[in-house]
Write a structure and sequence with these properties.
The structure is a single chain. This protein is mostly helical. The protein has one domain. It is 72% helix and 0% strand. The chain is built from ten helices and no strands. Helix 1 packs across helix 2, helix 2 crosses helix 10 and helix 7 packs across helix 9. It starts with 22 loop residues before the first helix and ends in a 5-residue tail after the last helix. The relative contact order is 0.10. Bound molecules: protoporphyrin IX containing FE. The site of protoporphyrin IX containing FE has 20 residues, from helix 2, helix 4, helix 7, helix 8 and helix 9.
Amino acid sequence: MVHVRAGGTPAPPKASPNPTPLLIHEEGKGSMRLFSDSIGRKVVMAITGLLMVLFVIGHMLGNLTIFAGPHGLNGYAEHLHELAPVVWVTRVVMGTAVLLHLFLSIKITVENSAAKPDRYAVQNSLRATFASKNMIWTGAIIGAFILYHLLHFTFRVTPDVGAFAGTVPGDVYGMVTTALSATVTGIVYIVAMVSLFFHLSHGIQSMFQTLGLSNAFLLPRWGAVGKTLSVVFLVGFASIPAVILVGILR
Ligand code: HEM
């Protein structure tokens, strides 16, 4: 629009107080946005979370072969060993996913606690559940468990599995039943599986919501899928130390 002064001469167009940045400048920042924008971060959390849920499904199904006895679990471990290239690709993808998920969860928690004034605390806790309020703590327990679990059954550096070190894959059934028959170790595994249950009972629904796969109809259904999967994981994983602790598997 051309402005006309009282004297009749057209005024020069006014400079905008907030000129639109050049597109190229915006594009330059694009690669970082996934990690710096709050939506971008949540999407990365959801995708890495989804990858971990897929891994957990596969790992649980593999572990359940223990109920078929030494032949079942050792045969499964041997089979995985023969698929080394697939296993290594999975390790790299999953390792990256776990580190990204961990880094962003800490970043989001620190930023949220700095930004959230106390007056919102009551409102939030009304809608929140035990699982949603404690995501950072259940996540921390799972992170610590994964570290311990890798040292335990993958690197086999803890004294209780010393006899199985360097025999990869070897007698995985013997290793698991020997290690989990110790009361403290069995309980540590069960506590970690309970933490996984709480983490996923909120996390799976939240993941679908972030990925935009939810509306008023779908959201409660994803909630049900999340809770059902979490219960299946709890029963599928925790049943292993439980039956070993009570002496059913030995
Ligand atoms: C009762 C529960 C569990 C048992 C008995 C179990 C058993 C095992 C065993 C035997 C291995 C080593 C396999 C081998 O060297 O051939 C292993 C590896 C692993 N487990 Fe578990 N696991 C359990 C729960 C979990 C959970 C809940 C997670 C993740 C949240 C997990 C993550 C892993 C990872 C990341 C590896 C390393 C895989 C690799 O070597 O690439 N485990 N587990």
